[in-house]
Every structure is written in C-alpha cells, then in structure tokens.
Design goal:
Elements: H1 16-21, H2 30-49, H3 55-79, H4 88-102, H5 109-118, H6 138-167, H7 170-192, H8 194-220, E1 236-237, H9 240-246, H10 252-257, H11 266-274, E2 283-284, H12 287-295, H13 336-344
C-alpha cells in the first residue's frame, strides 16, 4: 500500500522561526530537519558515552547511527534535486550539514547522479546502470555494485568538478566548502580517537553511502532504458514505513519522470500518473521481501515482467559530460489534477 499519511496539501512554512528566520520553504520539511538533527544528536551521544557502554549497547547504537546516516543520504538525494530553503546561503549551509550526515561532499553527487544516471537511465552513459554487474550469483551483483559504480564515475566526477572550477561556477565554491569541512572534521576525529571514529562515524557513513548506491540495483535491475520505455524503467517500493523514513524515495519512476517535484507530491503523483501505465511487478509493497526474493532465495535475476533475464552485451561506458551547467532537475508543472487529489485527501 502507498503512503496515505503523505497525501496532504503542500503548505508553505510561514511561522516565525522555521519560515522567517531559517527560510524553510514547506512545513513538511520540518521533519527533514528533525531527521538530520536525530542523526547528529545520536552520533554525539554515542561518542560521549562510548567508554561506558556494554557491547550490546555499542552495537545497537552503531546500527542506529548507520540507519539514520542512510536516512540522511536519502535527504541528500532529495536536496540536490529540490532545495529545502528559500535562500542560497541557507541551502549552502544545509548541504554542509548533510555532508557530515551521510559522509561525502553533497555537490559531488550532481555529476554521477543527476547528469549521468537521471539523464541517461540504464544506457551506456549511465554510470549507475545495473547491467554492468554480470555475476551469476545475484547477491554479488548487489554487494559489489557500489564498488563498480564508484570506480566508473570517479573520472567523470573529477572532470566535472574541475570544469566547474575553470568556468567559475558556484557549485565549485560550494564543493570546496563541503570538502574542506568534511575532510578536516574527519581527520580531526580520526586523530583524536581512531577507534570511536571507525565505529561511530566511518562505518555508519560507509553503510549510508553503500546503501544509497546499492538501491539502484533494487530500483532499476531488469528494467529497460528510459529512452526505450518511459514507464517501465524503474521499480517502486510503496510500503508506508520505508517511504515515511526516507521521504518517499520509494516512488522512483515518478521521481525520474519529474526530478524537480518535491518529495511530498510523489505518492499521489505515482498513483495518478505512473501506476496506470506500469507493469504490476514494478510496484513492490515490501522492499526487504523483494530483496530477499531477488538476491537471497530463490535469488534469480529476472526481467521486470518476471521473464528470464538475459544479459545484454557488455558495452563500455560512454562519455556523458560535455561542459554542461545544468543539474537536470527540471520537471513539468504540477498538474491541477494532482493538486486536487492532494487537497481532497487531507
């Protein structure tokens, strides 16, 4: 089932603190700020209490740090498409905070994710395409996908960032702020207490980065290229819990269709625009159950419609970056029918 609780009217944030002082755009994004705060409070508390904790409590808190860092990664994903605040300086500051939440400079996601994956989904120009993974044991395709993807996008990411520097674009300065802050804080914490840094900071953030990349396998494996099929190129996870915790990141097809739409609209938009056109197998209620079936037992790689999966030819990556200044988050205007549905189900 979908996220019925999310089907409410979009409201601008107009209160004194969040709306006027911070410049938050929408009331629903208060929860975004709460989620980020929870990660940092949890991490700080775990760091301070580390020497007093039993093994069981230590393990439980490290797992929680990892989960909340992953939730921060989904917020990061949404943020590089749709800014949370009204002003540039607040969005810049928030990206620095998110850099320390999921463990990587936020601006570095733009080339590989926005400009390669979104623009050229499941083609040779998509650095995150699942068909680069060719193991017969499907679990290996999932586990090793982040490693293969990271190496594939590293060169193009560097080219993009250096080109933004040469062109004097704002994203270069923002990347510098994020990178300088991130590496200096990581180094300071690692030197201060290497053991705490590894277990409380490094490993949870490594999990967040792994999981946000590995999600691509769950969402796109066995699906055609977007240019070949505009509807059946992504898998959706419609469970209420996962979408509440990750701000509707489960509704993936509508996000690819309109990456500039706010996360709050995606559940309604999926039901209204996407669901009537896609194969029913591309709506999965339970992400964990799908993962178990696809990668553990029976663990058989299938085409999105359930037919036998045949590996396409192993083609080399095709260069996708040619000096663009875009972030590829443009979208169609939100239709009145969607806004009507949203208001009606308040």
């Amino acid at each position: 089932m979908g996220v019925k609780a999310e089907k409410v009217e979009m409201k601008e944030c107009t209160d004194w603190f969040f709306g006027r002082v911070l410049g938050l755009r929408y009331e629903c994004d208060r929860r975004v700020l709460l989620w980020v705060a929870i990660y940092h409070v949890l991490t700080f508390a775990t760091w301070r209490l580390w020497d007093t904790l039993s093994f069981g409590w230590s393990l439980a808190l490290v797992v929680q740090c990892a989960l909340w860092s992953f939730f921060g990664a989904t917020i990061t994903h949404n943020t590089i498409h749709v800014p949370v605040f009204k002003t540039g300086h607040m969005n810049s500051l928030f990206q620095i905070v998110l850099t320390h939440t999921y463990g990587w400079p936020v601006s570095a996601l733009v080339p590989g994710h926005n400009l390669s994956h979104h623009k050229f989904t499941n083609t040779a120009k998509d650095a995150m395409r699942p068909d680069r993974m060719r193991y017969s044991w499907n679990l290996l395709n999932y586990v090793l996908f982040p490693v293969a993807t990271a190496s594939a996008i590293a060169a193009s990411d560097k080219q993009y960032i250096m080109d933004q520097r040469a062109r004097g674009r704002p994203i270069w300065k923002q990347y510098l702020l994020e990178a300088a802050s991130f590496y200096s804080v990581q180094a300071m914490l690692a030197v201060h207490d290497p053991r705490r840094w590894v277990f409380i900071i490094f490993l949870p953030q490594l999990y967040a980065k792994f999981q946000i990349i590995a999600m691509n396998i769950l969402q796109h494996d066995g699906c055609p290229a977007a240019e070949a099929d505009p509807w059946n190129n992504a898998r959706n996870f419609t469970g209420s819990v996962i979408n509440y915790m990750t701000f509707n990141n489960g509704y993936h097809t509508i996000h690819h269709t309109n990456p500039g739409w706010h996360w709050r609209l995606l559940a309604d938009a999926h039901d209204l625009i996407i669901k009537p056109h896609i194969h029913p197998n591309l709506d999965q209620d339970d992400l964990l159950l799908y993962f178990f079936r696809a990668h553990i037992y029976p663990g058989k790689r299938l085409w999105y419609d359930g037919s036998e999966y045949v590996l396409p030819p192993d083609v080399p990556d095709v260069k996708w970056y040619y000096g663009t200044a875009e972030t590829y988050s443009s979208s169609e205007p939100v239709p009145d029918s969607l806004l009507h549905v949203t208001k009606k189900q308040r």
